[in-house]
Predict the structure.
Amino acid sequence: MGRAVLEPRVLVVQDEAIIAMEIEDRLKSLGYAVAGTVPSGAEAVDRAAELRPDLVLMDIKLSGEMDGVEAADIGDRFDIPVIYLTAYADDDTVQRAKLAEPFGHLIEPFEEGELHSAIQMALYKHRMERRLRESEQRLSTTLRSIGDGVIATDNDARIRFMNPVAESLTGWEAAQVLGDELAPVFSIVDRETGSPAENPVTRALQEGTVVGPGDHPILVARDGTERPIYGSAAPIRDEKGNVTGAVLVFRDITERMETEAQRDAALEELRKAHQRLERQVAERTTELRETNELLRREIAERIQTQEALQRTNRELRLLDRASRAFNSTLDLDRVLVAVLEEVRGLMDVTGCSTWLIDPATGRLVCRQATGAQSELVRGWPVAPGEGIGGWVVRRGESLIVPDVLADERHYTDVAERTGLELRSVLSIPMGGRQGIIGVLQVVDTEVDRFDSRDQLLLEPLAASAATAIENARLYEQVRAGHERLQALSHRLVEVQEAERRHIARELHDEVGQVLTGLKLLLESSTALPPDARSSSLSRSLALVDELVTQVQELSLDLRPAMLDDLGLLPTLVWHINRYGEQTGIDVDFKYLGPERRLDSEVETAAYRIVQEALTNVARHAGVSEVTVRLSLDQEMLRVQIEDQGAGFDPEAALAAGAASGLSGMEERAILLGGELTIESAPGAGTSLMAELPLGGPLAEEEDSR
């Protein structure tokens, strides 16, 4: 059976041999490798240099010239964490021990759990400090190599860092000004007035926001050289969000301003030329307007004006009725049919239809149609980009086709499907808040049936139809979401009741029986002679131990306390080892990503998903090993459990609900905004993948570092 825990090597420094042997036995029982045991501080230094252990357990009080506090410089010399062990110590030794800054401190005697926790925390703290030092080195190298000047200050605006570019621009060397105030080194004046300009670092520290240096101020170097600059100052925050300093980034923009001056001169010449052209166009436009006015008065006739007014009134009535119909109900199909009938009657055409994009396939599907052979067109799918409607969707602009027989974009199957020889088509895109969602199309059997006036009539109608369609879809989404929420609430109640039944059953069947046996044993012991009571008392204590063990197991099954105290990874390691001991199944566990705490809800969901998946493997898979993988990046925690066992039908298992446990895992992922994917088939093994979004805590932690 494989173990998922590594075995750190520990050096024990203890001058009492019996205590040293006891500590060594405890370490081995906890799964640690003992690199060696030495009785003095001097030997501890030599063995640490030779063996390079992962951790040193150091007794403060050691015989010889070097006590444990003096020997603790092992941590600094060899980069090894040190934990102090002591049963007593005088005040002076305690104060010296504090100054040595050990990674942990244990008071003898101590429990194995305390020793294990202290070692784990010391190793974790040591890894984190090493990574922090490496991160600081990388950051320093990066800042020194970038092309902009960079100056970092503390909360009092005193210089703490200065890269070579900043040295070159200001004329000051970093070694000369570290710890000095920023203002004399980064001296800026207003470009127009020459008066001192406000230092952006001061505002960044006061306001806690990113601040620019104003309208290209002038940087006055140490030797009096003046350069126009551009840059900004940003606050530096600690892990609690408190402002601890600021970073200033700036660059020399002399060449840029010279280029801008040349550009402004060219733009001025272009503006003057444009003004001359506008005057010429205006003069010509005036001449054309006067000519057009004369022509309009000559050809305008009363009957034409009346017909135009009548058509306009009919169009306005259509738009008004359509708008009221769209706003009156969410029964989209009924409204579309009514509006399409109005359009067909007003324009006296062969047919009208609305075509919507299927989000799943991208195909254009006829939602509603009126006119000849409309029942054959309704529900007709067209491949993406095909036909006149597909062209309109792709381009997002209206299209008038005078004769479809002369247009290669026409879908030739129309005549075969409907038996109609259509000739003219007017297709209008329906654009909503999310872009083009379909087309409104009018067709006729006459050639050159439509013009720009028809297009102007239908474009606002198509826009209203698009809005109505989106509103109806949003209503359907809200309704579906409400139903989903009700189902999740019902499922939550079922899970709570199932947990209560489980606890009650465990208390009654296991704990209750032990308590009953203990009560009977204690009652019967009162009637026993004194020499027989000792045996009865021993059996009673054994029952008490059994009862304590059952209560502890019940508590761990409900929720292990270490999930809140130590986090997800230590808890999973503990659970996997316990699972292997209980089931005999070898768990191959690996983790990829930074070792840090996540949001409590994410850690709980990930732990429960692994716990339930491993339980299902033990119950149903029939395997001797299973693989568990966790990977973490800045946005997502991914959990994958795979086995090569019996497999099953995922759809049937999810339909079983609480009986399979899969629905509970799926709901945990969904409640965090993630998803659960299951790939399995009878006899083909099972692969379960849960993707859990972090939602912000990891990103915030990265920013604070």
